[in-house]
Amino acid sequence: MKILIADDSRVMRQIVTRTLRQAGFGDHDLVEAADGQQAFDNTVAEKPDLVISDWNMPEMTGIEVLRKLRAAGNDVKFGFVTSECTAEMQQAAEAAGSAFFIVKPFTAERFDEVFSPILG
């Protein structure tokens, strides 16, 4: 399976990648996006099976990316790994079709819990 990791922090993309490996998902094809526009463009071009997105990114926020994908008819599994967590954000994510919402700091165990049903 192909996983797109979208975060404007290169270090955070590396941490997400490392945590995916620690959780046992290292054999998947990983691609990255450094901002919201790249996340949208790469999702359309690369057709990943899963998008793991930060909430706050330049060019387009993660929720804007999700809404734009859904408006275009793209139903990729999409969720958030973010440092911010309000009830309003979680409600907006769910309403837009988010599959998960993981709050930083996260662990390999949390990734396993969330991604095992999605990635098998």
Automatic annotation (TrEMBL):
<dbReference type="Pfam" id="PF00072">
    <property type="entry name" value="Response_reg"/>
</dbReference>
<dbReference type="InterPro" id="IPR052048">
    <property type="entry name" value="ST_Response_Regulator"/>
</dbReference>
<protein>
    <submittedName>
        <fullName>Ycf27-liketranscriptional regulator</fullName>
    </submittedName>
</protein>
<dbReference type="InterPro" id="IPR001789">
    <property type="entry name" value="Sig_transdc_resp-reg_receiver"/>
</dbReference>
<dbReference type="InterPro" id="IPR011006">
    <property type="entry name" value="CheY-like_superfamily"/>
</dbReference>
<feature type="modified residue" description="4-aspartylphosphate">
    <location>
        <position position="54"/>
    </location>
</feature>
<keyword id="KW-0597">Phosphoprotein</keyword>
<dbReference type="GO" id="GO:0000160">
    <property type="term" value="P:phosphorelay signal transduction system"/>
</dbReference>
<feature type="domain" description="Response regulatory">
    <location>
        <begin position="2"/>
        <end position="119"/>
    </location>
</feature>
